[in-house]
Amino acid sequence: MSTQIDQRAVVHPKAELGNGVTIGPFAVVEENAVVGDGTHIMPHVFIGSGARIGRDCRIHVGAVVGHAPQDLKYKNEPTTCEVGDRTVVREYATLHRGTHETGRTVIGSDGFLMAYSHVAHDCRVGNKVILANCVALAGHVTIEDYVIVGGLTPIHQFVSIGCHAMVGGGSGIGKDVPPYSLVGSRPTVWEGLNSVGLRRRGFTKEAIEAVERAYHLIYRSGLNTSQALERIRADASLMAVAEVQAVVNFVAASKRGIIPPPRLKN
User: Fold this and answer.
1) Does the annotation mark 174 as catalytic?
2) Residue 164 annotated as catalytic
3) How far is CA 231 from each of CA 219, 221, 237, 238, 246, rounded to the nearest angstrom?
4) Which of 102, 141, 155, 182 is the most buried (most CB within 10 A)?
5) From CA 127, how far away is CA 58, in angstroms rounded?
């Protein structure tokens, strides 16, 4: 299948386009941008220098991929914004390049970034991630695989969100969100496991129950975080479960601290 470029688009001759790429009217593709096979770039899209877009992506009207980061320390160094295969970027989403600190912003494959979502410089977004409308990631945020973030949610810089977590819409995320968690409310708290999501993705009943036991120690036992981790590590049956190991490793590595437990009602 041949590449199709609307005559009203502006594509730099040194941009690298794969087979079957479609570029709509008034789109701009800068020098040193790379667009993979079969990707569809719709009208008024801006693909900046340093963009690296995978195969079979859909970049919707007015979206921006690979523009310069919003960082006063950035001095036009050559950096990249990398998007995996089959990712959908909806209207007016903005995905910025990295800075000199890491050199890369990375978004994985099979993602769905809804309208007006923003991925700032040096973020790492995993595979099969859904960012709903107006989700805003500050710089250096890490989001692991299969995370869903509800609309109108800001995420503070350097926050990490563990795999298979679900964040309720309108939350404000200033602490790390451990894997498999459901978080929400205002102020944002840990609300339990993302049980429905885990069952839909084929997690076993035994794995879900083990993770629930681990989180009971972390959030509901009255122990502090270090004590809870020690108790989990001392339980061989819990540590035999890979998902529990992922929780322990994530919480132990957290630099910002994890989302707090639900507040007791008077």
Assistant:
1) no
2) no
3) 13, 11, 12, 10, 15
4) 155
5) 16
Residue 258 CB-half CA count within 13 A: 27
For the chain, the average pLDDT equals 97
Distance separating alpha carbons of residues 169 and 183, to the nearest angstrom: 10
Confidence of residue 1 (pLDDT cuts 50, 70, 90): confident
The 10s digit of each residue's pLDDT in 114-166 is 999 999 999 999 999 999 999 999 999 999 999 999 999 999 999 999 999 99
Q: Is the pLDDT of residue 265 over 70?
A: no
Task: Read off the tokens for 152.
Answer: 């109108």
Q: Which CATH number fits domain 199-253: 1.20.1180.10, 3.40.50.1820, 2.30.110.10, 1.10.3720.10?
A: 1.20.1180.10
Among the options 139, 150, 162, 184, which is catalytic?
Answer: 139
pTM of the predicted structure, to 2 decimals: 0.97
CATH architecture for segment(s) 4-140: 3 Solenoid (2.160)
Token representation of residue 265:
């009602």
pLDDT of 266 strictly over 60 = no
pLDDT tens digits, 68-104: 999 999 999 999 999 999 999 999 999 999 999 999 9
Please tell me the distance from the alpha carbon of residue 266 to that of residue 254, in angstroms, as a whole number.
30
Active-site residue identified among 38, 44, 60, 122: 122
DSSP per-residue codes, 93-133: -EEE---TTTSEEEE-SS-EE-TT-EE-TT-EE-TT-EE-T
- Annotation says 121 is catalytic: yes
| Domain boundary assignment for the chain | 4-140, 199-253
